[in-house]
Every structure is written in structure tokens, then in C-alpha cells.
Amino acid sequence: MPGSICDVLPAAAALLGAPGATDGLGLTEPVGPVDRVAVVLIDGMGWHLLPELAGDAPLLASVLAGDTGWLRELTCTFPSTTPSSLVSLGTGASPGEHGVLGFTLNVPGTDRVLTHILWRPNPTWDPAPGAWQPLPTWFERLRGAGIAARAVLPAPFIGSGLTDAAYRGADFRPTRRPDDYAARLADELNAAPGLVYGYTAALDTAAHVFGIGSPPWHEAAARVDALLTRLIEALPPNAALLVTADHGGLNVPPDARVDIDTDPRLAAGLRVVAGEPRVRYLHTEPGAADDVRAAWCEVLDGRAQIYGRDEAVATGMFGPVAPAHLARIGDVVVVCTGDTAILATGHEPPESARLIGFHGGPSPAEMAIPLIAWHG
Q1: Nearest to 40 by CA among 265, 259, 234, 262
Q2: For the chain, what percentages of helix, strand and coil (3-state, to nearest 5) are there?
């Protein structure tokens, strides 16, 4: 069985000697003794995309050839989406445990939908991060053990609900667009022992907007490879660099798209639509759940798995689900198969319907992620 994104920070903490941390990924032998570890997450760099990326990425090509680094396959958590994965990375817990169960979620007891990447805590609207995601993070645990834990992130991320939920306890180092991000990460790693975390979204953004395999996607791959190459060149001898991802992805052609808001059979009985195009949470009008499920099963026969909430939880796809988080999952859960995507043009920003690359589903192309390690 492959390891999980949940294992990455505990393994990094174990390398740093944190009490109670377990190296479940077997990093101790290939990495050796270190007193500082950089963990860099490349948004959208799925395991199955590595061979295609390698054509524009000499470093990644060298990793695939076995000439540098140490490579193994991991899996992200489900849904295979950035908010869920980042919080699973930060806490070491499954979405069912930490409660960030998708890209968007219905706030129970309301008709509001929380979009995690736009989450700005506001007591009259969005929930407080500590209440919505109550688990401790590994940044907090390291800090409690007297080990420095820093996160080098774009300035707009600082203070957001998602940043707090995923990286709570980190010492934040904001960066701005003109900054040399590789240099900032390297400077933090060289400055003091401990953990340094970094993140880049360039590859995922290109996949969404232009498609996996498009020229802009290949250009983003080259930039990511250059970033990692510079980090390795600056890696001190007492340091390790761990590179992973939050999900993979796939392109969805026009004929594989279904729009809830243009098909009355799918729109009937819905109160709130949440989730994302590859995994939909349907919160229904009172008494309508069975009819909604039956209609969706008929319309999407062979294109999605349709579950009631309890049935979806029982599959274990979310990991153990805390009782406090159950209502965040739809009365009906729709998990797309193949390359199907379910749009909601009447509920979500119009630009989401123009995207080409998607993720969130359970396919290996979306769930499998790499872990690459280097020692200085």
C-alpha cells in the first residue's frame, strides 16, 4: 500500500527528532541525519503526470531515471482537491477527521456555501478556522517541541481561513510577486534548523486554465523544475528537501460535461449544491433525498457513483468522519467516473465552466502523487 500525504509532515518531524513523530515513509535511511527539512508542495504535480512533465523538466527526468533523489508513490486524500489535501498535509489526518471535505462545503444550518480558497474568517458569515478545523497541525506540534516551523507563502495567503486550518502554528514568512521565491526558501533553510514549508500553484493553474499538456502547462513545468533545481543547489549538507503534491488531474472534454442548471431533472429538489465538478454534494429539500438520488442515478447512469450520505461515509472514502462534520457532506454524494464533470453554472462563478483541467475524483490520475527526497 502506498503511503499518504498525511504521512509527509510526521516523517519530516521524525527526521527533526520531534517527540511522538513517526517516519512511516522510510525516509530516515535515504535522507540520513539532518537538522533542517524543507517540504515543498507543487500543486497539481500528480504521479501519473511525471513522465509528461519530464520533457520540460531535466531535474524531474533525472529523478525518473533514478539518477538523482529518492522517489516513491503516495496517495492524496479524497476528495483529491487542494483544500482537503493541504489540511491533510498539515494535520496528518483524513478529511473526515479534520472536516475540510471538499473545495466548497455547505455551512450546516444555513444555505451558505464556504469556498475554502476564498475563506476569510468573519463571525457574521464564514466560520472561525479553529471551530471549522479543530485538529492541531504539525506546525503547532513542532513549535510545542521547540523546533522552528516556518511557512514561506504569498502574502495574500496570510490570515486566510485555509492557511490557518492547514498551517496553524507556523511562523509565516510572506512573499510578494517581485520576490525570488527560490531564494527566499533557501535563505530560510540556511538561516536556522527546523522545518521550512513552501508551495507553488503555477502548474495547477496552467492545468485548469489551459489544460494538461498545453504549451502553458509545459512552460509551468519548466519553471517548477528550475525552482527545485535552485533549491537543491542551495541545500546545505545538514538539510533535506522533500517535494510532494496535493493531487493530479485530467482534462475534461466538452462532451463529458453535465450542467445541473440546464437539466431540470438534476435541478429538482436541490437546496444547496457544493463540492466541485468531479465530486458533488447535493443538499436536498426536506423529504427529497430519495427522489434526487433516483433522478441522478437515471441521468448519470455509467458516468458517476451516486450515494446517500450514510452510504458514502460507510465506504471509508473520507476516512473516519467525526460526527460534527457529517452535515457538511451532502444528502446525496455524486462521485464522477471516467472523465465526467458536473458543472453548476447557476451556482458557481462562470469561469469555472471554462476550465479544461479538473481533479477531485478517486481515479489514480487524480489521487496518486509523488514524494521526492534529496539530502544536501
Answers
A1: 234
A2: 40, 25, 35
SS3 114: strand
Give the amino acid at 57.
A
Interatomic CA distance for residues 376 and 370, integer angstroms:
20
Element (H, E) at 199: strand 194-200
Q: For residue 43, what are the contacts with CB-CB under 8 A and spacing of at least 6?
A: 82, 199, 200, 201, 202, 203, 204, 205, 245, 246, 247
pLDDT tens, 191-248? 999 999 999 999 999 999 999 999 999 999 999 999 999 999 999 999 999 999 999 9
**Three cell numbers at 346?**
447557476
Q: Pick the closest to residue 242 from 43, 2, 11, 1 (CA basis).
A: 11
Give the separation between CA 145 and CA 169, rounded to whole angstroms.
Answer: 12
Give the C-alpha separation, 240 to 50, whole Å: 21
Determine the length of the chain.
376
Rounded distance between C-alpha atoms, residue 191 and residue 199, angstroms: 19
Q: What angle do CA 162, 166, 168 make, to 5 degrees?
A: 100
Kind and range of the H or E run holding 41 = strand 36-42
Sheet of strand 149-154, all strands in order from the earlier edge strand to the far edge? 3-4, 70-75, 368-375, 239-244, 36-42, 194-200, 149-154, 171-175
200, 185 contact by CB (below 8 A): no
Q: In what order do the strands lie in the sheet with 279-284?
A: 270-276, 279-284, 332-336, 304-308
**Per DSSP, what are the bridge partners of residue 307?**
333
Task: Report the largest interatomic distance among the alpha carbons of the chain, rounded to a whole angstrom.
Answer: 63
Q: pLDDT value at position 262?
A: 94
Q: Which of 314, 346, 244, 226 is nearest to 9 (CA)?
A: 244
What region, left, alpha or beta, does residue 359 occupy, with left being phi > 0 and alpha being psi -120 to 50 degrees?
Answer: beta
If one compares 125 and 223, the residue with the highest pLDDT of the two is 223
**Quick one: how far is CA 13 from the chain centroid?**
20
Nearest to 340 by CA among 249, 257, 260: 257
How does DSSP classify residue 235? -
Give which of 148, 144, 201, 146 is closest to 172, Cα–Cα. Answer: 148
Q: Are 169 and 150 in contact (CB under 8 A)?
A: no
